[in-house]
Design brief:
- The complex is a heterodimer.
- By secondary structure, chain A is of the alpha+beta class.
- Chain A has two domains: 8-237, Cytochrome Bc1 Complex, Chain A, domain 1 (2-Layer Sandwich), CATH 3.30.830.10; 258-442, 2-Layer Sandwich (Cytochrome Bc1 Complex, Chain A, domain 1).
- Chain A is built from 17 helices and twelve strands.
- In chain A, the strands form two sheets. Chain A has a seven-stranded mixed β-sheet with strand order 1-2-3-7-4-6-5, with helices on both faces. Chain A has a five-stranded mixed β-sheet with strand order 8-12-9-11-10, sandwiched between helices.
- The longest helix of chain A has 18 residues, at 143-160.
- Chain A is globular, with a radius of gyration of 23 Å.
- Chain A starts with a helix and ends in a 5-residue tail after the last strand.
- By secondary structure, chain B is of the alpha+beta class.
- Chain B folds into two domains: 2-204, 2-Layer Sandwich (Cytochrome Bc1 Complex, Chain A, domain 1), CATH 3.30.830.10; 227-414, Metalloenzyme, LuxS/M16 peptidase-like (Cytochrome Bc1 Complex, Chain A, domain 1).
- Chain B is 44% helix and 18% strand.
- Chain B contains 15 helices and eleven strands.
- Chain B has helices at residues 42-49, 61-68, 93-105, 111-130, 133-145, 159-164, 167-177, 193-204, 257-270, 276-284, 317-333, 338-354, 359-372, 377-387, 391-401, and strands at 2-4, 10-15, 21-28, 72-77, 82-89, 183-189, 227-233, 239-245, 288-294, 304-311, 407-414.
- Chain B has a six-stranded mixed β-sheet, with helices on both faces.
- Chains A and B meet through helix 3, strand 6, helix 5, helix 11 and strand 11 of A and helix 2, strand 5, helix 4, helix 10 and helix 12 of B.
């Protein structure tokens, strides 16, 4: 039996070694790729030395799958470990806690994840893996837990209404996404969460937390035959009777330049400036990434920080990011500054953005950014948790298996012209939304 | 590996060859607890000014070079210490040491830089404290709990002191405290001990010892009863934070097993879903949405044992306080269950393994314990000492320290 198994592995496992991006570093991630019997993709990276295992299952079940019940995905994920048909919430927690393991879930606009971190010592790992599998196959969502979690969620939503950065984020995404599912916050809103019932949650669990919708990433010191067994068990526990994959792709809103002021009592104004930008896999991703790195994505090296913090002392923090999603993700510039300085900051940022889109970076800036990104590559993959996140992303977005391997060479090829082209194509200055949340003096 | 150079610089090196990466820290034995009234926020403001350049490497050359080499850098100030670090590909370690050693005694503090940076710091204060009810409550807790201990003042400083601060204040602070004999270099990562030590000697060896004044610890006088502070802010969620004055490993005449028992007590209260605060306040009584506790035995002065609660919207803070009192009385009266102790011990054991996944975290633990307590062998003994804690010790420290004469509580309520 054992022999047979090994023969199978050698066929379906293939080894990808990423070694040659730079002769001066020895950063190296070996990724093993595998597919379970029921078709779940697995990426595994072996990490010697630390006797621990990290498992992350990624589902196409982020908040954009909420439908009209905003907050449904997050509520479902938060409730996964609150009861199975055999065990109560306390018993589940007690198994994870007494083995020192960590069970976690996350939800963003596209993806959701369920993860487990444990010691590899069987004494700890076996009981917690068993519990983990039971959650995946048999979470029961007891009504008392549903109500408790709903109340806590609503409480947080109400609290967020008194936090200027939460308010800004909520208004900004509504503005750039309109009717698109990306418009809403993953946590949902007060009315929608009130409406969610146990049946909605069970339906979501059956339809979306399913093997047909999942991929697995594992980083561990355990040998690969054991990882394969674990992966098979996980994918089996995710088999569902009926699978329904609703595609709810919706047209993106056409944006027109707009200024929004929201009155709020705080000393600082919270300012968001931006629009939609690119989808994952876009040819413009790498040039936009490098361009944004120079404009606002590299802390003190970035233009925004140099101008608004170092040169003018206007703020503690200013940044920009491009976050590609399955469909067009956001491009966002954010800053906090005392109310009196809000309009000056908006003016400076808008001018700097227009100039950057028009002229791109200087040669020196581009050279600096490339060096920084390429030299810093080993830092991106220097821990199990970093590698785990890359594996999850590669799986979910169907990125090429050599994504990490080719990353630095793609960066090194970016030209100033590529950056200008990418910004001109993806960041339309006539559709920029400017949002100021702050007191009267910020108006 | 641990060594002290002739000029008094302490060096701690730790190998971790999992990735070709290294983190290089320097920890100065100076923090906000060394400041005095009217001059609060100096240590933190100096930390900001340390990025403004030296005669040899003016402006942002240091930061630019680290960025170009693919490194990350930052700094942090606490009540007990000020620390700077760079994390970068290991072959570039020398660059980090070259710049970091240079700014130990060659910093240029210009008035024009200071005037801009102090505005940045005020923005930081507005962001983290003044616009955050929880930040205001935290600041008020320490200011109210302590009469004499210098933990009274906030790390970032009072806004009034920031308004009055000058570049000369910063410059004096720098001259008084930044010297090889008041610092610890901590390097963790893909390194060779001998080579690394040579590099450290090359850059730090020539630095001269400076006479450093003794860091005083201002003892806290007796407290006569529970202190209760009520804060009212319009349209903000309510919040409760409380602190009990407790010892640390650095306290005078302390039975150190009490510190480990307090740490276990904090775990019993708040680590995991079956912890007392979670189970009772969040799940059974359904009055809180979040509840937490915290205690650091590695602080230089006597710290606070903290408990903080986010009530469910609409829940009365007085009612929650009564529930909290009942939880504490129970811990003072009855022994905690074996299951609860085992849970804490398993979690400590596991987290010791998990933290090996981050070299930066490892360096932080080493730097913090060396700077605040002085003895890094405590790290190796930590798990063992936690394992020794018994249920009756937990009850004893609850009885001894979670009492009204050591308690301060701050509540935030919506303005009526």
């Amino acid at each position: 039996m054992m022999k047979n198994n090994i023969a199978v592995f050698s066929k379906i496992f293939f080894l990808i070694t990423i070694m040659n991006f730079s002769s001066i570093t020895k950063a190296d991630v070996k990724i093993l790729s595998y597919e379970t019997r029921n078709g779940v993709k697995v990426l595994f990276s072996k990490s010697e030395n630390i006797p621990m295992i990290d498992i992350k299952i990624t589902f196409d079940a982020g908040s954009s799958k909420d439908g009209s019940l905003k907050g449904l995905s997050m509520l479902t994920h938060n409730l996964l470990d609150e009861g199975t048909s055999k065990k109560k919430s306390e018993e589940i927690a007690s198994i994870f806690e007494s083995t020192g393991s960590v069970f976690n879930t996350s939800v963003n606009k596209d993806r959701s994840t369920i993860s487990l971190r444990s010691l590899t010592d069987e004494k700890y790992f076996n009981p917690c893996l068993k519990m983990f599998l039971e959650i995946l196959s048999d979470s029961s969502f007891p009504i008392s837990e549903v109500n408790l979690q709903k109340n806590r969620t609503i409480s947080t939503i109400i609290e967020n209404k008194s936090d200027p950065s939460e308010i800004a984020s909520s208004i900004f995404f509504k503005e750039i996404y309109g009717d698109h599912p990306y418009a809403s916050q993953s946590i949902g809103n007060e009315n929608s969460v009130k409406k969610i019932n146990r049946k909605n949650i069970l339906d979501f669990y059956q339809k979306h937390i399913s093997s047909s919708n999942a991929s697995i990433a594992i980083v561990s010191s355990l040998p690969k035959d054991q990882i394969i067994k674990i992966s098979e068990k996980i994918s089996k526990s995710l088999e569902r009777k009926e699978v329904e994959n609703i595609s709810n792709t919706k047209e993106m809103k056409i944006l027109k330049e707009k200024y929004i002021f929201k009155n709020f009592k705080s000393e600082q104004a919270h300012i968001y400036i931006g629009s939609t930008s690119i989808e994952r896999g876009s040819d413009n991703h790498i040039p936009l990434y490098v361009g944004n790195y120079i404009f606002g994505g590299s802390g003190f090296s970035a233009r925004l920080m140099k101008e608004l913090r170092v040169k003018r002392g206007l703020t503690y923090g200013v940044y920009s990011y491009v976050y590609p999603l399955k469909e067009k993700g956001p491009f966002l510039i954010g800053i906090e500054t005392k109310a009196e300085q809000a309009q000056l900051s908006v003016k400076l940022i808008r001018e700097m953005l227009a100039e950057f889109v028009e002229k791109g970076p200087t040669d020196e800036e581009l050279k600096h950014a490339k060096n920084s990104i390429i030299n810093g590559f080993p830092l991106r993959i220097d821990s199990n948790s970093d590698i785990l996140n890359y594996l999850s992303m590669i799986n979910y977005y169907n990125l090429p298996k050599d994504y990490l391997k080719t990353f630095t060479s793609k960066i090194s090829k970016v030209t100033k012209k590529d950056i200008i082209n990418a910004f001109k194509t993806e960041i339309d200055l006539d559709s920029i939304i400017t949002l100021v949340v702050g007191n009267e003096k910020a108006k | 590996m641990e060594q002290t150079l002739e000029n008094g610089l302490q060096v701690i090196l730790k190998k971790d060859k999992r990735a070709p990466v290294v983190t290089s820290h320097i920890w100065y034995k100076i923090g906000s607890a060394d400041e005095y009234s009217g001059k609060t926020g100096l240590s933190h403001a100096l930390e900001h000014m340390m990025f403004k350049g030296t005669k040899k490497y003016p402006g942002g050359i240091f930061s630019q070079t680290i960025a170009k080499l693919g490194g990350k850098e930052n700094a942090f100030t606490s009540k007990d210490y000020t620390a700077y670090y760079q994390t970068l590909p290991s072959q570039y370690l020398e660059h980090a040491l070259k710049f970091e050693s240079d700014r130990m005694n060659n910093l240029v503090i210009k008035k024009e830089d200071f005037l801009k940076e102090i505005e940045v710091i005020k923005e930081e204060r507005r962001l983290r404290t003044d616009d955050q009810p929880e930040g205001v409550a935290y600041e008020q807790l320490y200011a109210s709990a302590y009469n004499n201990s210098s933990y009274h003042d906030p790390i970032i400083g009072w806004m009034e002191d920031l308004n009055a601060m000058s570049e000369q204040d910063i410059s004096d602070w720098y001259d008084n405290w930044y010297a090889p004999n008041n610092a610890t270099v901590v390097i963790v990562g893909d390194i060779d001990f001998k080579e690394t030590l040579q590099l450290i000697k090359k850059y730090y060896g020539p630095k001269k010892r400076v006479k450093i004044q003794d860091r005083t610890i201002r003892d806290e006088p007796v407290q006569y009863g529970a202190k209760e502070i009520s804060i009212q802010i319009k349209d903000k969620p309510s919040y409760i934070i409380m602190g009990y004055k407790v010892p640390s490993l650095n306290s005078k005449d302390i039975d150190t097993s009490e510190c480990y028992a307090l740490s276990v007590l904090s775990g019993i209260l708040s680590s995991g879903q079956n912890s007392r605060l979670q189970k009772i306040l969040v799940r059974d009584k359904k009055v809180a949405s979040y509840a937490d506790s915290g205690y650091s035995m590695f602080s230089r002065n006597d710290p606070l044992f903290l408990i903080d609660i986010n009530p469910l919207v609409g829940e009365d803070t007085e009612k929650i306080q009564k529930e909290l009192d009942a939880i504490i009385v129970d811990l003072q009266t009855n022994l905690v269950h074996k299951k609860e102790l085992d849970r804490i011990k398993a979690q400590v054991l596991a987290s010791e393994v998990y933290q090996r996944d981050s070299i930066d975290y490892q360096a932080r633990i080493l730097g913090m314990i060396k700077t605040s307590i002085g003895d890094i062998s405590l790290i190796d003994k930590y798990t063992e000492n936690i394992n020794k804690v018994t249920a009756s010790q937990v009850r004893s420290v609850a009885k001894k320290y979670l009492v009204s004469n050591l308690k301060t509580i701050v509540t935030v309520n919506d303005e009526k």
